[in-house]
Design brief:
9 helices, 7-stranded mixed sheet, about 25% strand, Pdz3 Domain, about 500 residues
């Protein structure tokens, strides 16, 4: 059994995880992949509420037979079957789908961390194939493609209704591929000819803004991400004289990835308590993931940056850090994918991906359809040509997808920040990366404020003493102590 946290749409979701040693994994917000039977989580014993009658199954078989024998042209039996299955699943939510053998193989291969292609992530938005992000140092980046560009044609083939666009963009290293692209502000589409190359996905990037203040940019949750994070943190600590004074955890435009890695990342910064809970049909708890005290880093405050492109696994991490008061979440509303999928490998190498549950943050919040509300709302704005202001994040979110699951929030639990937090809005553009600049300013201010309080014999939360235990399931977290960035006062 393997688990995956996925991101934006059914076409954008990808990845498969391996079970690591010494760690129990669950299934939240990501995709649970079942390859060794369906006994896990009791799925193997689940039966439909109303079994389909033999007459209806016979009707399906009869229709299939009629098409095979009477249709005006010869038809491929596999194509008929795949089309029937896909049509059935497409009537459900947008993350439930059928994966042909080649699509399933592609999904599994993505965890290797490299592939031959041009270096873009795409998603279907309003019927248009749209670039979600461009990987630095790739053919797409060098050609000048940007997030938000609409891909109209691939090698002169229209992308509307194209099902295998990932395969068409990928291919043998050194081979050319042409993309016809429409960009906002252009009168006419333009063509980009690129040479495919090996795309190595660097999931984690760490750097210092100045000694003591680091940035940890997590681009997606791939295998062994927790090891990479630990290495980056250790390097930044060495360069800062042995410790950090503050950290910016950048999860912007992170579409998700592996569940176990999302849990492990949160566990690095959370000492005790629940990280994520998964509930299936009827509110049945399928699994819970909890933090362990070993190796937890609690000596510095954290600001977690998110935006509309932060989805699934990224939302799990942001929600857990927010609920535990371990980080101040800053940026804009996240994508809002809070559903769990199980993937069942079928006999011919194809796979069924079926939504089976919703996941909840430690305080019991469901972010499905709504997303994570930042503690401090900061729009990312950039000046283009010195005139126009452009928001640098995806426009479509989970709630915009046709057939998406509705948010079924429990009474008394809201999808916003926990009680006691004030939402602050900042929208004045400054610098190249305004959100990062604002996060850095908050960390610096917090350090100065905390230092002065300590000189007065006070804890950073203003108290003389007191500790907090682990968060129990469904308990509302209360930010406190030197492990949390406080945000109790509005800034005028």
């Amino acid at each position: 059994m393997t688990l995956v946290v996925t991101g934006l749409s059914r076409e954008a979701e990808r990845g498969i995880c391996r079970k690591g040693s010494g760690r129990r994994f669950s299934l939240p917000a990501l995709t649970l992949i079942v390859t060794a039977g369906l006994s896990a989580l009791g799925l193997g014993h689940a039966a439909p509420r109303k079994p389909m009658s033999p007459s209806k199954l016979a009707m399906f078989s009869r229709v299939l037979s009629y098409v095979e024998s009477q249709y005006v042209e010869d038809v491929d039996q596999d194509e008929l079957l795949y089309g029937a299955i896909k049509g059935m699943l497409d009537s459900l939510d947008p993350h439930t789908t059928f994966l042909r053998p080649e699509q399933y193989r592609e999904m599994k291969n993505d965890t290797s961390g490299q592939f031959s292609g041009i270096g873009i992530e795409v998603d279907q938005r309003d019927g248009m194939l749209t670039i979600v992000s461009v990987i630095d140092g790739t053919p797409a980046s060098r050609a000048g493609l940007l997030a938000g560009d609409q891909v109209l044609r691939i090698d002169d083939q229209p992308t509307r209704q194209m099902m295998d666009y990932i395969q068409k963009m990928r291919g043998k290293r050194g081979a050319q591929v042409s993309l016809t692209v429409q960009r906002s502000g252009w009168k006419e589409p333009r063509s980009f000819v690129m040479v495919r190359d090996i795309i190595r996905i660097r999931s984690v990037e760490g750097f210092l803004l100045e000694p003591g203040y680091g940035v940890l940019r997590v681009k997606q949750f791939t295998d062994n991400l927790d090891r990479e994070v630990e290495l980056q943190l250790a390097a930044m600590e060495r360069e800062s004289g042995g410790k950090l004074s503050g950290l910016v955890l950048d999860l912007r435009n992170n579409p998700g990835g592996l569940l176990d890695q999302a849990v492990r990342l949160a566990d690095i910064f959370i000492e005790h308590g629940l990280i994520v809970r998964t509930e299936g049909r009827g509110g049945r708890i399928l699994d819970e993931e909890r933090a362990r005290p070993e190796g937890t880093r609690t000596s510095f405050p954290i600001i977690c940056l998110v935006n509309g492109g932060s989805a699934s696994a990224a939302e799990i991490v942001a929600g857990a850090l927010q609920d535990h008061g371990r980080a101040l979440v800053m940026g804009t509303q996240t994508y809002g994918k809070g559903s769990v999928q199980t993937i069942v490998e079928l006999e011919d190498g194809s796979a069924l991906k079926l939504t089976i549950a919703r996941y909840y943050t430690p305080s019991g919040r469901s972010i499905q359809e709504k997303g994570i509300t930042p503690d401090v709302v900061v729009d990312q704005v950039r000046l283009s040509d010195g005139k126009s202001v452009v928001k640098d994040e995806p426009s479509q979110k989970e709630r915009d997808l046709q057939g998406h699951l509705k948010n079924r929030q429990k009474p008394g639990q809201e999808a916003g920040p926990p009680p006691g937090y004030s939402v602050i809005a900042q929208r004045t553009p400054q610098g190249e990366d305004f959100q990062l600049r604002t996060a850095y300013d908050y960390l610096k201010a917090w350090h100065l404020f905390a230092t002065r309080l300590l000189h007065r014999g006070l804890r950073p939360d203003g108290s003389l003493s007191g500790t907090r235990g682990p968060l129990s399931s469904g308990q509302q977290p209360k930010p406190s102590g030197d492990r949390a960035l406080r945000n109790d006062t509005k800034v005028e």
